[in-house]
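Standup notes
- DV: blocked on the single-chain target, sequence here:
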Amino acid sequence: MKISSFDSEERYFRVKNSKTGLISNKRSLSLNLYNENGRAIMYKMVAQADVFLSNLRPFELERFKLDYETLSKINPRLIWGNITGYGKKGPDKDHPAYDTTAYWARAGIHSLFSVPGVPCLTYRPAFGDTVAGLALAYGIVQALYVREKTGIGQAVNISLLHTGLYQLSFDVSGALITGKDIKDWREEPPLEIQQQSLAAIAQIADFYAARTKSPLTGSYLTKDLRSLLFIVLQPDRYWAKFCKAVGREDLAQNPKYETIEGRAEDRVALRKTFADIFITKTLEEWIPLLEGIPYAPNQTILEAVKDVQARENGFIVTYEHPERGMIEQLANPVMMSRTPASVRLPAPEFGQHTEEVLLEYGYTWEDIALFQEDGTIA
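- DV (later): unblocked, structure below
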């Protein structure tokens, strides 16, 4: 059983993908979960289900009474799985998120796909959705195995931000251990060459921007030259809110701009208007103004590991290393409520536990000595 919400542009991709077999072998049932009868039908299905999946945010789960605490009372053996953008805790837990914002931009993937003078110009939809989906599938299988052994159901939580960080675990580990960003290790080309490159790339960016139907989708630069990535797949819904955030409520009152088609006619002029506005404030100044709008800053890897959402949701764990003392590393991206993963041992040295393991399997010290002599073990 899977519950999700989607808008008009996402609907296009679902129809397109269903024709190509990407969303095949499924059935679709629509229920109004604001309606008491709709929830009653849902609860009846939950009572007979093995697994319940959703991509709703915490406040939506509470609103529709689909949270784990509620559903587990109906079916204690239920495996409850949920994918969010930024986790179930922290100030941004209910912030609207897509894979391109939470996974691509905020986790630092965009930053790592760029080099000085050659920025990453675009993003790919569903780049992180599929990876997060695989992580959820792994967690569900693990939870079903635990239930088979113990009879206990549990909640499995995945977030796009955490999964994005996990995909970058090599770079994340380096940032956590050294406290340095990629730019601190990398030699940059001369500024003159960078400027020449960026001048040409800016023309290419303008070319594609002029062909983007909605001025509410794409990147804008701030006063401190930070890049904000907007993915507003329901532009009519967010138009007035966006205009208020940037201080141009007059645009929201223009009848021509009430629909995406009307705005599309003037998209170049509107994009120029918004670009001129965003460049007047820093990222920190824009953050409170953009509350509730689907966007994310393109963060560096060091910013991503210091992100308040990563910290408050336990994406980073601390443990004691025998040589380095207390260090940090990424937590497992599959967050399980009853059988959570934990860091019990640091990464071993090569062959560190050879003798210990062999003794556990019944071999004697004499056996081990013979194995060392004939080269069976190092």
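- Follow-up: The beta strands are 2-3, 51-54, 79-84, 154-159, 218-221, 227-230, 295-297, 316-321, 325-330, 335-336.
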